[in-house]
Amino acid sequence: MFGIGTNELILILIVTLLIFGPSKLPDLAKSMGKAISEFRKASSGILDEAEKKDEKRVTKEEEPEKIKVKNDKEA
Prior knowledge:
mainly alpha
């Protein structure tokens, strides 16, 4: 987990509790959860969009090239 040990995690939680207080801590956790959720939605949307572009590129590459043949009458 990002190279953070148990002692460091406990220290971070204690400092957070001292800074924000016990009354604001649930609101802080809720807003962080929403932010993480929105970030995941956005990143998955970007990945989905990139996959769609890759699929379109593959289908374009697989299409046979259309060669125009000039007719003697048109020339």
